């Protein structure tokens, strides 16, 4: 019996993976509906993520699909939040997940049973309408997310207590009308910060966005009009990024992102070239800077009564309103601190999933990772790995080995507005997912495919690394995986080719042009 905490993206795929392995999941969801982050509500609910209605996914539908459940071909390539929620509902209905979800049920505590060293069992206390109930579970999957506790480090902004205007965290934002005629400052240049600045600039008198570090800005529309992640997140590109020396890999990435526009000319360049930042995905910011709708400034030095002073900018800038897009904290109030210790906004988890010190590996945390790519397939792979460990079909290494790896990763953290980011090598979605896939025997063998199915091998290596690749072989293989891979560009182009026939068209090289190169690479690098 497995307790699943939360019925968002992580909780749904965790429940499904439990069923695939013959386990008995019970999913506890404190609200009255599934969807987690992707379920929009007009009111801000306590302990729930808050979404603004204009949010669109930053990763394309083919890269964001669960590995055995492609999106409908008529869905747009990048999904408005309402359609992504529809997809999650269809997923839950197709695999019969809803009967395993207890809505309106809050998890109050999760504690080890007295006989935990031998049984690995947990006592889970839940509350419904003020009445608490205790349950016993053999394992727990924590899927409660990390976008419900806003981080608002006001102590980092001198003079904010003197500011007479309005300020709030981006979690409170819903509609741009609140900025009508105002002079607005957006603090932070993550995805939410840029989205809000763009929306505000359509109605505000003036919008300024400030960043102390800069960013890499990507457009959803990438080379030749293809989705950015279907071009960048291929096995070939991942191999190149992670095989080159660090500085050379950075220069290659920097050159690629600057092909669309020179970030330095727009005030967006990264301050320290040795640091790897999570890229921001937005289609409008460069043109809004060009047309004067948005001004980019360095970090805040000090707030005044009705103005702000930026670093390296002596003059004061008048402002009426500040939006702090400074990210989120995360915690697990239902867990004892000794189970999952959160320190400096970092949880010490093996492969971002398992506490290293438990006598029995029967508790896992899903979704605490920032991959450079779609997160849904990554979480699904975490869930597939976790459920097989629960069953004893996969084993974790000794505690000393796990702790050594976790400690080494801590050394590579960099911080920005109190948020912790990891270097690109550790969160490259292809590398990380491949690693977990190899643990359970579902990582695709390009070399093996080359001799059995050359067309599929070429598409797998040179084409986008879509989640269906992890259903080609091994436990949980799906008969429709090959067809899903070979038709992924058809589904991508179907909603855009509405005036002309939607014949297949992709940036993948032809069979004759690259067969020899693939064979050579496979032999040399062990693919």
From TrEMBL:
One of its GO terms (cellular component) is endoplasmic reticulum membrane. It is an enzyme of class 1 (oxidoreductase). Its main location: endoplasmic reticulum. It catalyses: hypotaurine + NADPH + O2 + H(+) = taurine + NADP(+) + H2O; hypotaurine + NADH + O2 + H(+) = taurine + NAD(+) + H2O; trimethylamine + NADPH + O2 = trimethylamine N-oxide + NADP(+) + H2O; N,N-dimethylaniline + NADPH + O2 + H(+) = N,N-dimethylaniline N-oxide + NADP(+) + H2O. GO terms for molecular function: flavin adenine dinucleotide binding; N,N-dimethylaniline monooxygenase activity; NADP binding; trimethylamine monooxygenase activity. Keywords: Endoplasmic reticulum, FAD, Flavoprotein, Membrane, Monooxygenase, NADP, Oxidoreductase, Transmembrane, Transmembrane helix. Its EC number is 1.14.13.148, 1.14.13.8. It is a single-pass membrane protein. It comes from the Eukaryota. It is found in: Endoplasmic reticulum membrane. The keyword Acyltransferase does not apply. Its cofactor is FAD. Broad spectrum monooxygenase that catalyzes the oxygenation of a wide variety of nitrogen- and sulfur-containing compounds including xenobiotics. Catalyzes the S-oxygenation of hypotaurine to produce taurine, an organic osmolyte involved in cell volume regulation as well as a variety of cytoprotective and developmental processes. Belongs to the FMO family. This is Flavin-containing monooxygenase 1. The lineage of its organism: Eukaryota, Metazoa, Chordata, Craniata, Vertebrata.
């Amino acid at each position: 019996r497995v307790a699943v905490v939360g019925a968002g993206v992580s909780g749904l795929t965790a429940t499904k993976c439990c069923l695939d392995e013959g386990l008995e999941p019970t999913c506890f969801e404190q609200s009255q509906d599934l969807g987690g982050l992707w379920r929009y509500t007009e009111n801000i609910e306590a302990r729930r993520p808050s979404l603004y209605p204009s949010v669109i996914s930053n990763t394309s539908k083919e890269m964001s699909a669960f590995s055995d459940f492609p999106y409908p071909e008529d869905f747009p390539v990048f999904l408005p939040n309402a359609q992504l929620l529809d997809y999650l509902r269809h997923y839950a209905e197709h695999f019969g997940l809803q009967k395993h979800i207890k809505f309106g049920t809050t998890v109050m505590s999760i504690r080890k049973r007295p006989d935990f060293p031998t049984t690995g069992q947990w006592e889970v206390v839940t509350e419904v309408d003020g009445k608490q109930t205790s349950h016993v579970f053999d394992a727990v999957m924590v899927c409660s997310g990390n976008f419900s506790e806003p981080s608002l480090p006001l102590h980092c902004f001198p003079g904010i207590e003197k500011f007479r205007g309005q300020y709030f965290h981006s979690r409170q934002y819903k509609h741009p009308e609140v900025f009508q005629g105002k002079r607005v400052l957006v603090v932070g240049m993550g995805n939410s910060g840029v989205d809000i600045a763009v929306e505000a600039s359509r109605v505000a008198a003036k919008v300024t966005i400030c960043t102390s570090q800069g960013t890499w800005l990507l457009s959803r529309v990438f080379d030749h009009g293809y989705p950015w992640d279907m071009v960048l997140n291929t096995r070939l590109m991942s191999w190149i990024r992670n095989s080159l020396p660090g500085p050379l890999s950075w220069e290659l990435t920097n050159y690629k992102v600057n092909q669309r526009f020179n970030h330095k000319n727009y005030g967006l360049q990264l301050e320290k070239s040795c640091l790897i930042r999570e890229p921001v995905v937005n289609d409008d910011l460069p043109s809004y800077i060009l047309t004067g709708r948005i001004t980019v400034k360095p970090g805040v030095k000090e707030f005044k009564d009705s103005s702000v002073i930026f670093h390296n900018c002596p003059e004061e800038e008048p402002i009426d309103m500040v939006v702090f897009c400074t990210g989120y904290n995360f915690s697990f109030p239902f867990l004892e601190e000794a189970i999952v210790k959160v320190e400096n906004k970092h949880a010490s988890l093996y492969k971002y999933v398992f506490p290293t010190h438990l006598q029995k590996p029967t508790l896992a945390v899903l979704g605490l990772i920032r991959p450079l790519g779609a997160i849904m397939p990554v979480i699904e792979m975490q869930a597939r790995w976790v459920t097989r460990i629960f069953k004893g079909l996969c084993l974790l290494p000794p505690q000393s080995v796990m702790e050594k790896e976790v400690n080494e990763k801590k050394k590579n953290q960099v911080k920005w507005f109190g948020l912790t980011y990891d270097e690109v090598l550790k969160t490259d979605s292809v590398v990380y997912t491949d690693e977990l896939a190899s643990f359970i025997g579902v990582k695709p063998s390009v070399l093996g495919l080359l001799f059995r199915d050359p067309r599929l091998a070429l598409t797998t290596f040179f084409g986008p690394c879509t989640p269906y690749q992890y259903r080609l072989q091994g436990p949980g293989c799906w008969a429709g995986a090959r067809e899903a891979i070979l038709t992924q560009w058809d589904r991508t182009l179907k909603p855009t080719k509405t005036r002309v026939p939607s014949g297949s068209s992709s940036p993948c090289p032809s069979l004759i042009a690259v067969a020899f190169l693939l064979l050579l690479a496979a032999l040399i690098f062990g693919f």
